[in-house]
């Protein structure tokens, strides 16, 4: 095997796309997927690669420092691609401590294990930290986040991700660890857990349930096809210089309400419903606390230096996404039948 790569959070939404891409594209890499299998981790996301020789799944918690140290000792990794995180903003408002533990302490545990295990060979190793555009805070009507934008996180989620980014950079500056960070905008696509806006709306429209839109629906997000994110991670992992940061985004800004209306149209069409019927499910609910108005990513550095460009138009990607959810009813039933239901009831009961 040419490289042994630890991918954390590989059973989650983006992680499963990254694991699939690396296992299939690099048969000479050994991919070890470490995941705690929280409510968001689902091994059904990876059934198509679970039998591959170059793939191994390990269940474990990045917050457990002894376990992480031992894992590095046994596996002698060449690189880490770190995606494991608590990722949902609303959950971070309800329970911030879990975000501190996994996103901050978990990341520092991984950095410590890499620092110790890779001593004397930092230039041949790489620690890739996957982060978010939310660390930059919120934009007004104009402007975009660049790699030089100052951090200004507002939610416990984005504050925990910002903190982890700072630790990753500190380990580069202080100890010389080879690190790379990317900050990506909102992803969408298959295997997205239905607590997030797009899969939640698809699931609710399908079941003729209210589609909750926070506030007036005027917040803007910049949406990227998840497979384009996985491809960007591949390119950056292999080509970025040590210590570099790359923004990843789709140049694809949508007001939430416009996005939901487009989704309603696609769903009416796919479900053979009368045009306009799904829109009647839209229900305005109490706004998210500290709700960032607008995110927009300037990804020109990635496009110009490494030649990455998004591959799909949003309308096309959204239609493919809807098709995936309608064709994978069992997946949706499995994830909505357990813990998720009680979370859903608590989250929306008071709105
Ligand atoms: P997700 O919630 O779908 O998946 C997270 C995965 O991490 C799950 O499989 C979960 O079981 C695992 N995990 C959580 N805590 C763990 C722990 N303590 N130890 C080991 N594993 C643990 O998240 P996602 O949307 O796939 O996001 C992946 C990464 O990408 C995160 O770091 C997130 O901040 C970042 N990101 C996400 C988006 C987005 O739009 N979803 C955008 C930009 C960046
Ligand atoms: O029911 C809802 N109604 C609603 O109006 C939900 C769940 C969300 N929203 C709004 C809030 C946001 O403006 O839709 C927008 C998107 O919300 P989320 O899907 O929760 O995503 P967001 O908060 O933007 O964060 C996502 O993108 C950046 C991911 O969850 C993060 O992990 C990533 O870092």
Question: Can you walk through the features of this model?
Answer:
With 351 residues, the protein is an alpha/beta fold. The protein has one domain (3-188, 222-252, 291-312, 340-348): NAD(P)-binding Rossmann-like Domain (Rossmann fold). 43% of the residues lie in helices and 17% in strands. It is built from 12 helices and 12 strands. The chain has helices at residues 13-25, 65-75, 89-94, 96-117, 156-175, 197-206, 226-239, 256-271, 300-306, 314-327, 329-336, 339-349; strands at residues 3-8, 29-35, 55-59, 79-82, 126-132, 179-184, 186-188, 211-214, 220-225, 245-248, 253-255, 282-285. A 7-stranded parallel beta sheet has the order 3-2-1-4-5-6-10, sandwiched between helices. A 3-stranded mixed beta sheet has the order 7-9-11. Strand 1, helix 1 (13-25) and strand 2 (29-35) form a beta-alpha-beta unit. Helix 4 runs parallel beside helix 5 (156-175). The longest helix is centred in the first third of the chain and has 22 residues, at 96-117. The radius of gyration is 20 Å and the shape is globular. It starts with a strand and ends with a helix. Bound molecules: nicotinamide-adenine-dinucleotide and thymidine-5'-diphospho-beta-D-xylose (TDX).
């Amino acid at each position: 095997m040419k490289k042994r790569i630890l991918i954390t959070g590989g059973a989650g939404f983006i992680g499963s796309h990254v694991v699939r891409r690396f296992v299939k594209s690099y048969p000479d890499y050994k991919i070890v997927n470490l995941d705690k299998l929280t409510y968001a981790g689902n091994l059904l996301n990876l059934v198509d690669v679970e039998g591959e020789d170059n793939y191994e799944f390990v269940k474990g918690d990045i917050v457990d420092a002894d376990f992480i140290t031992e894992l590095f000792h046994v596996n002698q990794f060449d690189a880490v691609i770190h995606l494991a995180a608590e990722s949902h903003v609303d959950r971070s408002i309800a329970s911030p401590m879990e975000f501190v533990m996994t996103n901050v302490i978990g990341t520092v545990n991984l950095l410590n294990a890499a620092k110790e295990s890779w001593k004397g060979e930092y230039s041949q190793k790489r620690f890739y930290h996957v982060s978010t555009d939310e660390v930059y805070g919120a934009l007004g009507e104009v402007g975009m986040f660049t790699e030089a934008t100052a951090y200004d996180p507002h939610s416990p989620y984005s504050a925990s991700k910002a903190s982890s980014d700072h630790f990753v950079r500190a380990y580069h500056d202080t100890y010389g660890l080879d690190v790379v960070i990317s900050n990506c905008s909102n992803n969408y696509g298959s295997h997205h857990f239905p607590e997030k806006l797009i899969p939640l709306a698809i699931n609710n429209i399908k079941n003729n349930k209210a589609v909750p839109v926070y506030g007036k629906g005027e917040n803007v997000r910049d949406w990227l096809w998840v497979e384009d994110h996985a491809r960007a991670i591949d390119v950056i992992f292999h080509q970025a210089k040590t210590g570099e940061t790359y923004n990843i985004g789709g140049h694809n800004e949508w007001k939430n309400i416009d996005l939901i209306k487009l989704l309603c149209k696609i769903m009416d069409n796919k479900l053979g419903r009368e045009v306009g019927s799904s829109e009647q499910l839209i229900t305005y609910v109490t706004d998210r606390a500290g709700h960032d108005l607008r995110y927009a990513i300037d990804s020109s550095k990635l496009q110009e230096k490494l030649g990455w460009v998004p591959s799909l138009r949003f309308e096309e990607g959204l239609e493919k996404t809807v098709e995936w959810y309608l064709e994978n009813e069992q997946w949706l039933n499995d994830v909505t039948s357990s813990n998720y239901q009680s979370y859903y009831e608590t989250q929306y009961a008071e709105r």
